[in-house]
Amino acid sequence: MSNIAILTDSTAYLPEAFLKSHNIHVIPLKIHWDGTNYEDNVDITPAEFYDQLAGASTVPTTSQPPVDEFLGMYEKLAEEYEGIIVPLISSGISGTISSAQTAASMFSKVPVEVIDTHTTSAALALIVTALAQASSEGADLETLKQKAEELVSQTEIYFAVDTLEYLHKGGRIGGASRYFGTAFSIKPILYLNEEGKIGALERVRTKRKAVARLIELAVEKSNGKPVHVGVLHANALSEAEEMKKRISDQVDCQHLEIYELSPVIGTHVGPGTLGVAVF
């Protein structure tokens, strides 16, 4: 195993047991709601978040970790590791990368490589998982950086929201704006583009057709080859489990997991969101 630390952010929302067993470190994004500040997945879990959201009259806001928190993490990790690789949520939807890069420019005890993955959630989780595997096989920092850049270029994420209201209120609607205000039955298939910003791929009628199209996209992306797949959901586990089963039947999956959306991402997409990440 290499002596390189992996530091990611809370939107990857990997299981705690996996984080501990692979020595993956996490810096949380922030949620601000009716005068209370929360750290993503630390002070509030997805279950607590959606319970609170259901009866809320206001929608929370989110923010990136500040520079000093990244500096503190770098300082702590430098005591144990020879280098740090930092794969993070897309700069197209969060300022987290900016904080990490600024902190890295102020830090010199060990080399730090900040990776803009141009994605988040299940796709970020897949990338971090692959880096953890490479690290366990002895990859050095430069090899991990090259691996991360390769994965970023290969990874796709597609998702469908129950309503565009949350993306609109959170200012992250991007290319999906042309569908805002359309009939509730219209379900845009959204994705993160090459710049890591939200784009609208196409639209379908009904959630059932949206799910079917997400599965088709996973099949198309696999192109008959073995792939890594993450099914993502926001408070929609039973539907995610059904998606996982259908994908397993149609795709040769080297890795297939369900990933719950962290509260920070849930803030912007809302409950009922389903999606798929593939590389």
Summed up:
This protein has ten helices and 13 strands.
Give a structural overview.
The protein has two domains: 4-29 and 64-153, Rossmann fold (3-Layer(aba) Sandwich); 156-278, Hypothetical Protein Tm841, Chain: A,domain 3. The chain is built from ten helices and 13 strands. Helix content is 39%, strand content 26%. The protein starts with a strand and ends with a strand. The protein is an alpha/beta fold and 279 residues long. Mean pLDDT is 92; it is low at 175-183.
Can you lay out the helices and strands and say which pair or pack?
Blueprint: E1 4-9, H1 16-21, E2 24-27, E3 30-33, E4 36-39, H2 46-54, E5 61-63, H3 67-78, E6 83-88, H4 96-105, E7 112-116, H5 121-136, H6 141-154, E8 156-160, H7 165-169, E9 186-192, E10 198-205, H8 207-222, E11 227-233, H9 237-250, E12 253-260, H10 263-269, E13 274-278
Parallel strand pairs: 1-2, 1-6, 6-7, 11-12
Antiparallel strand pairs: 3-4, 3-5, 8-9, 8-13, 9-10, 11-13
Helix pairs in contact: 3-4, 5-6, 8-9
**Low-confidence region ranges:** 175-183
Portion in beta strands: 25-35%
Mean of all residue-level pLDDT scores = 92
Q: Largest sheet, described in full?
A: 6 strands, mixed
- Helix tally equals 10
Q: Based on CA inertia axes, which overall geometry fits?
A: globular
Structural class: alpha/beta
Task: State the assembly state of the protein chains.
Answer: single chain
Helical content band: 25-40%
Q: Work out the number of β strands.
A: 13
The CATH topology annotation of the largest domain reads as Hypothetical Protein Tm841, Chain: A,domain 3
Note the gap between the termini: 24 Å
Order of helices and strands: EHEEEHEHEHEHHEHEEHEHEHE
CATH class descriptor of the largest domain = Alpha Beta
CATH architectural group of the largest domain? 2-Layer Sandwich
Radius of gyration (CA) equals 18 Å
- Count the domains: 2
Strands of the largest sheet, in order across it? Answer: 10-9-8-13-11-12
